[in-house]
């Protein structure tokens, strides 16, 4: 029985949160890896693009709630998500037209585009905080839990209760649907195959009659949809705070690089590796070990390797190790 309690505690505080967080990182890393693989630069504005899309979702959600419109037990933000994606698409297409297109036509080196994206990052960060403010904004409604700890205890008779938040369940389901649709699009549609050809060999793709501007536009549209979805899911799971999305840039890039920058499958794997590493290393293992340790040997301390304040340091260390020993990542992406 103690072993079952330990497994439930492990699932409650490590497995479920890590799967949800990993799904959010995977969606974010997919956007980064698409930009790098097709447009050939590292987009440092991706975190704030997520924040912008999530901000629109928050504002539309508040409008719907004020009008008395809800989605039943599901968050109203899901109704606002299409509007947020559309708004983010408009943003990235305008940004590409006014900023990135000039440097693309000038055949600027990737490092120049990286610096430009940092400028876009600071502008977006200031814009989002100016519009919605710098503080936490909560916009989640509907049923809070899919499974409540008290109900789980009553059903199983265990001391530990398993609680799964609605936002966590929605995150996993939406992430799976988004990934399936993305891989279907890239592998089965003519446009997706054109994007892959452009990524593999730009010159050969141009000779084959592929329109580069169309490829760029479709790429930005997909990236905006992924970024907004990831941003909204993260906000529902935690809360919306603009500066947090700036901080998320490190684990998102770490996810993309660990899996193999430019490789979509690697971005997904990297997202879960980073998420499980962060959650596992910053979790206090006292409760789990108390169940499984022999009597009299239960730990007295928290048994925590690092405080949660240092969870982004875990991403940094993993990123550093990968760059030093396997710069192409686990799935052999493109070298930075």
Mean pLDDT: 91
Strand content: under 5%
Order of helices and strands: HHHHEHEHHHHHHHHH
Question: How are the strands ordered across the major sheet?
Answer: 1-2
Largest sheet: 2 strands, antiparallel
* CATH class membership: Mainly Alpha
How far is the N terminus from the C terminus? 50 Å
Do you know the CATH topology? Answer: ABC transporter involved in vitamin B12 uptake, BtuC
Tertiary shape: globular
Write down the domain tally: 1
What does this structure look like?
This protein is mainly α and 336 residues long. It has helices at residues 2-39, 46-66, 77-105, 110-132, 149-156, 166-188, 190-200, 202-207, 212-237, 242-247, 249-259, 264-282, 286-292, 311-325; strands spanning 145-147, 164-165. The protein has a two-stranded antiparallel sheet with strand order 1-2. The N and C termini lie far apart (50 Å).
Structure described in brief:
The chain has 336 residues and is mostly helical. It has helices at residues 2-39, 46-66, 77-105, 110-132, 149-156, 166-188, 190-200, 202-207, 212-237, 242-247, 249-259, 264-282, 286-292, 311-325, and strands spanning 145-147, 164-165.
